[in-house]
Write a structure and sequence with these properties.
Blueprint (H helix, E strand, L loop, with lengths): L5 H20 L11 E3 L8 E3 L1 H9 L3 H14 L5 E7 L3 E6 L1 H6 L19 E5 L11 H19 L3 E8 L4 H13 L2 H6 L1 H16 L4 H14 L3 H25 L6 E4 L7 H10 L3 E4 L2 E4 L9 E4 L7 H16 L3 E5 L5 H13 L7 E4 L4 E2 L16 H19 L5 H21 L7 E2 L2 H4 L7 H18 L12 H11 L1 H11 L3 H20 L8 H25 L8
Parallel strand pairs: 5-6, 5-11, 6-7, 11-12, 13-14
Antiparallel strand pairs: 1-2, 2-4, 3-4, 8-9, 9-10
Amino acid sequence: MKVVFPRQYVSGLISGAIQALAHQTKDPSLLRVVFDVDYKEGDKFGDYASNAAFGVAKIMEIPPLQAAEKLKAIIEAEIAENIERIEIAGGGFLNFFFRKDYFAKNLDLLSKLSPKNYADPERKKIIIEYSSPNVAKPMHIGHLRNTVLGNALANLYKFIGYKVVRWNHLGDWGTQFGKLIVAYKKWGHKEKVEKNPIEELLNLYVRFHKELEHNSNLEKEGQEEFKKLENGDKENKNLLAWFLKESLKEFNRLYKLLGIKKFDKEIGESYYSPLIPKLIEELDKNKLLEKSEGALIVRLDAFKLPPALIQKTDGSTLYMTREVASLKYRVKKLNPSKILYVVGNEQSLHFEQLFAIARLLGIKPDIGEHIKYELVLGPDGKKFSTREGNIITAQEIISQAIEESQKIVEEKRKDLSTKEKNEIAREIGINSLKYYMLKDGRMTPIVFNAQAMLSLNGNSAPYLNYAYARFSSILSKAGRIGKGDAYSLENQELNLIKKVLAFDDALIKSKQNSSLHSLADYLFELATQANRFYESTPILTDAMEKRKDSRLQLIKGICRIMEMGFEIMGIQTLPKI
């Protein structure tokens, strides 16, 4: 037997009704109606509701209420076996009330749910670019939110059946690398860099600028070394490649610590430099280039955007130039249906210009989408910074999360060995940090609060981990679980089954919003509802064996959904904490 998901079932009924109405009226334009089907909590407005009548009303030029009545009549005439009744509310919304036995008969299938049950029919290829740290510099707090969000979005698209290409666009080009090359040649030591790459390379870069205060010639030396790099100087190219290789060691250490999935592509900006001459030639051939005070620009007046600078007066290129080359490269090599760029909100203008240039070059419309996000702020609500005014590093935040977790574990789990405490503290700390980065909408600034992040009482990873561990413990104690008698279940259990079957609602909203907060809200609500059920209902002690088995089947389904939700969010499942 296959699970019949309520959202899909209602969508099918409405689509069928719209097709029938199009046939009756001989108006095929009705087939273009786009509608939503939304899961509803409680019984007042039904189990699911749809706005389909408003789209139909617009095309037929009739009131929404009248359109809703037409759709309702068609669906009722077809005798929808799982629907108890349909009501019209809010001037045209269709509210669907399912029969009680619909939820009961799906009970035994809940624990068998898997990603294939949620496969998106499109199943296209999508590139998701995220993390994108700068070579020779430590990842900062912004990279942390970026990496966690991008990883979760990649997990989501893979879960629903897309072919996902995880792309790490590394910053390894620009005049700063000419300066770093100068610094390394003057003061660098290979052994020190290999031992602690990011810290040592950053120290060399900082030293360059300190020395610059007393030796202004260094600026010119840096420009010359970068010019040599642009011209293909072998020594400088080898140094840059080595800087990249050593930096990746540190980045990969952090990715492993955070449980970030391996990237399919890790390509630096420098890779696209050889493609620039051909790109400029193409822009010129299409009459898109214009000289402005010796520089080359692309005017974007048609898009109501300022001009994009493509080449400086000295002939050097810019980040935008390499971004266009990278976009063209990805489209040609991989032919994705979409490229999602997970990059901070402050880069909005850059991406508007990039996508505008792509349109001018004839690249498929809307190929790129900027998945912007807001800052992570300190506990005082201000931008994170150290006493010296430098940005806080990702490692510092990770360490703080683990240290705060360690205090709680030391207090509450005195029965464990030091090794066990350390392991649990690490897992809870990282889970908490990742969940905290995802539970709010991506355009909501995150105010970092270690206490809230690790709370056992609110919308947090520890709360979810504890709920999952509690339910897992029940199943472990139960042993073998029989089929049960689902039809003996009461409203509280049936509402929980309904909530479990609404998992796809959270997935759809997360995909639509390119944000995991809908999934986080869903998991928190599911855990809260399941905890109330656990605290008010006898499960293992139920005297009626069949009903006990039904309740245990429900707990198994809840655990299965939580496991899949955790997997998407990149959170480690902890059967015991």
